Amino acid sequence: MSEPVAAGTGRAVELRRLHPLTPFVRGWKALAVIVAILGQQAADGRGGSPLPMLVALAAVVPLALVYGWVAWLFTRFGFDGEELLIESGALFRRSRRVRLDRLQAVDVVRPLLGRVLGLAELRLEVVGGKASEGGLAYLSEDAAVRLRAELLARAAGVRAAEGEDAPEAPEVVLHKVPPGRLLGSVLLSMPTIVSGVLAVALLVGVAMTGEPSFAFAILPVLIPLGGGMAQRLISEFDFTIAGSPDGLRLRRGLLETRAQTVPPGRVQALRIVSPLLWRARGWVRVEVSVAGYGKEAASESSALLPVAPRAEAYDLVRLVLQAEVGPHPGPEAVPLAGVPRRARSIDPVAWRGLAVGADDKVFVSTRGVLRRELDVVPHAKAQSVRVTQGPVQRRLGLASLHIDLPPGIRPYADHRDAVEARELLAREVELARAARRRAVPERWAERPEG
């Protein structure tokens, strides 16, 4: 359903509506909250007569449906040139414009109820956004996929012919995480080990004291740990990453599925994590930082590859950043330099794991003993570079180098020689300037061939 309206520029903009079932899905959320309150009161023995709550339920649900219907009626969206226009609000009208050239990622989210009804939510992440901008909930699954393709095509500089849908860019599956490997990575994580130790302590305590109430001392710690493991299994189930001209495509989820597309050039930094218990299996995790994600969204979307063999992970990093990074002996790998021996006075355990290096494309730093981390940052993405020096570092002639990026991965190189740190800063500034001069357009349709 669509209708033409006059935009602020004077052009006629074809505006569309969300799916007609949207008020029902939103009303269902209100019903779920009320049922949860009823259940909690019944469990606490404070429920009393259910009649007042049933009356409240009968009154609130229709009001929620009416509110949802009014919100649906006044919510419309469409393209106005190089912007996505979204209008909403009945009493207080709101008009949002999302610049497509600032588009950082497009997510298609299918909640459980939405999957049953064939609906999906489209979430847009833009530069500088503290939260998702222009969220469209809900569209039919086909409409959400078509709109995502149209957004990515327009962001890339491709315009479909009048009356035709934007072409869906082809994709090639790069990696898919097997369920057994994902389960193994969760079982070999520190939260799982801690949960196992606490569970054994709980059973031993109950056996020795004969008091089941002993369990209540540990359950407040055990339940969040178990919930975190279950959440990771559910959210990262069937994790698939594919490459396409319109960007990286990530799909994952068991109950709620998410299809995320990160356009080319929008990756700010990558981190390769090697936990202690994974090293015997040769597994690592690859995390990504994408500009535009708020803190909550960034934590949900940080995994580029939840678990993979080391060689596959490094191949993916090289593909994404078009840079040779890795522990292989090839001459193109970025050489890393450790810290001075006097750094062990300030960090006696982890100082051997601290290293830094750079070539003409990326900055690389490593750290950690139990949890090893390797950060890789394209020079062109560095927003600022700074050197810090604490009182103990000053006494030892040491300093730390920091590269500032959007929320997410924050690379740093601790405990360098103070003179070397200043030289690294000057070199990084020059490398960043040179990289930005060489940068090609982020719109892939406008990039030169070859």
Poorly predicted ranges: 328-332, 444-450
* Global shape: globular
**Adjacency order of strands in the biggest sheet:** 8-7-6-12-11-10-9
Helicity, in percent? 25-40%
Main sheet?
A: 7 strands, antiparallel
Report the structural category.
alpha+beta
Secondary-structure blueprint:
Blueprint: E1 2-6, E2 12-17, H1 22-43, H2 51-73, E3 76-80, E4 83-88, E5 94-99, E6 103-110, H3 112-117, E7 119-126, E8 133-140, H4 141-155, E9 172-176, H5 179-187, H6 190-209, H7 219-235, E10 240-244, E11 247-252, E12 257-262, E13 267-275, E14 283-290, H8 295-300, E15 303-309, H9 310-321, E16 337-338, E17 355-358, E18 362-367, E19 371-378, E20 384-388, H10 391-396, E21 398-404, E22 412-417, H11 418-438
Antiparallel strand pairs: 1-2, 2-3, 3-4, 4-5, 6-7, 6-12, 7-8, 9-10, 10-11, 11-12, 13-14, 13-19, 14-15, 16-17, 17-18, 18-19, 20-21, 21-22
Please, could you describe this protein's structure?
The protein is of the alpha+beta class and 450 residues long. The chain contains 11 helices and 22 strands. A 7-stranded antiparallel beta sheet has the order 8-7-6-12-11-10-9, with helices on both faces. A 7-stranded antiparallel beta sheet has the order 15-14-13-19-18-17-16. Helix 1 packs antiparallel against helix 2 and helix 6 packs antiparallel against helix 7.
